[in-house]
Write a structure and sequence with these properties.
single chain, 422 residues, alpha/beta, Rossmann fold, 5-stranded parallel beta sheet, 4-stranded parallel beta sheet, 18 helices, 42% helix, globular, binds iron/sulfur cluster
């Protein structure tokens, strides 16, 4: 798809502004009723899904010059998808999230993107990770763990660590827990070590689709060569890429986030918790594990008007509301840990508020990105919990940075809690 393919859809955006709120029947308080971080922060219509439809229409009609402000309007979208869920609930089957992805791609194809993205893109091209750290160090986190190297040995399951867990030393304890759990469960698995490449989810969300395709095809080829059938990851971004984006490029592997795997082990009685963890916690649904963690097939068909009025799609267009994301599994794990008290936030599951790290905004608009994380932390604290738990390294890092030295409140990965309970 390209931006021009959304021309008809753009005309059908009714300016109702429902995309700026969680669905009204789910609102519990005015304070936490908004869903779109960018309109929330910039407080100007252009920074909403509706505004981005209008901007796109102006670009398609050649009515605007591409200025820095237009670039900001596109790239401050975190591609969190909250607008998409709300819009679908109240209006026709519009796809503001997919449209904004194409808006970013249209701009990126002509070199119109933030400076920070240029650095990330260079790093990806040279070292296959956004940080620019040598790709020869990608497998260092696994040294001494005695994990199979699937470029030389065989196994059914590959564990994809991803950029964050591979390179961020602060997260190495978490990723080692994932390995420990797979080992304890007797899973025959391995890793790709230094040959593993970035999943590409981040640069896809920044509009660099051809570079994403290159990375995805390289990872798919690696897995095919290794003869694996299943991909397990502990990263929500990676999960989203493998589950939702890779199938468009011919990938047909089984994809599991580690929380799905752990939940399954608990239900089968293969994983039990022996330690009490007396903590009051709240759980943050990562956008890419939740509403964007469901399988997705791009619709290609014809949009017609019945009796010149009612929009009909041929063939029928599926509606992706985010309801099939991964929501129950992490909650099942938390509820299985003795001593944990889970207190839910107001915006949860497909209506969750973003952590602020998506769409390349953490790197290009850090002040805004941190503000968004702070907003979510306020909601977390309002539950009375002492700890926010999440299942994504990007969410954890953005929240931790925003929290600073805020005594009395902490942010942990769900795997860290599992480790404490084992
Ligand atoms: S909810 Fe949908 S139709 Fe309404 S303004 Fe937002 S994008 Fe347009
Ligand atoms: S994807 Fe998220 S940040 Fe972007 S317009 Fe939708 S709600 Fe706002």
């Amino acid at each position: 798809m390209a931006l021009k393919d959304y021309a008809k859809e753009i005309e059908r955006c009714s300016a109702c502004s429902y995309c700026k709120w969680i669905p009204f029947d789910h609102v519990k308080s005015w304070r936490f009723a908004k869903n779109c971080p960018s309109i929330d922060y910039y407080n100007f219509n252009n920074y909403s899904a509706r505004g981005r439809y209008l901007t796109s229409r102006s670009i398609l009609r050649d009515e605007v010059k591409i200025t820095d402000e237009i670039i900001d309007i596109a790239h401050t979208c975190l591609t969190c998808g909250a607008c998409d869920v709300s819009c679908k609930i109240c209006r026709y089957n519009l796809e503001p999230l997919e449209m904004v992805r194409e808006l970013k791609a249209e701009l990126a194809a002509k070199g119109n993107y933030p400076e920070a993205h240029k650095v990330m893109l260079k790093n990806i091209k040279e070292e296959a990770n956004i940080f620019g750290i040598s790709r020869k160090r990608r497998g260092e986190w696994a040294e001494g763990l005695n994990i199979k190297d699937l470029t030389k040995e065989k196994a059914e399951v590959v564990f994809h660590a991803g950029c964050s867990y591979s390179y961020d030393k602060k997260l190495s304890g978490t990723v080692k827990t994932a390995v420990e759990i797979l080992n304890n469960a007797g899973v025959d698995f391995g890793i790709m070590g230094d040959a593993e490449m970035c999943c590409g989810a981040k640069i896809h969300s920044m509009g660099h689709h051809s570079e994403f395709d290159r990375l995805a095809k390289a990872n798919i080829a690696l897995w095919k060569r290794a003869g694996v059938t299943t991909i397990v990851t502990a990263c929500a971004d990676g999960y989203h890429a493998f589950k939702r984006l890779y199938p468009e490029l011919g990938s047909n592997f089984t994809v599991l986030h580690i929380v799905e795997y752990i939940d399954q082990l608990i239900r089968e009685g293969k994983l039990t918790f022996s330690n009490e963890v007396p903590m009051t916690i709240t759980y943050h649904d990562p956008c890419h594990l939740g509403r964007q963690g469901e399988s997705y097939e791009a619709w290609e068909g014809e949009e017609q008007k019945y009796k010149n009025q009612i929009v009909v799609h041929s063939p029928k267009k599926p509606r992706y509301n985010g309801i099939n994301g991964i929501y129950d599994e992490p909650r099942n794990i938390l509820n299985a840990i003795p001593g944990i008290e889970l207190r839910e936030m107001e915006r949860i599951r497909e209506f969750s508020y973003c952590c602020g790290a998506g769409g390349g905004a953490r790197e290009s608009y850090p002040e805004y990105s941190q503000w968004v994380a702070g907003e979510r932390l306020e909601e977390a604290k309002a539950t009375g919990a002492e700890t926010l738990v999440t299942a994504c390294p990007w969410c954890k890092t953005n929240f931790t940075d925003s929290l600073g030295d805020n005594a009395g409140f902490s942010v942990v990965d769900i795997l860290d809690l599992v480790r404490m309970a084992l």
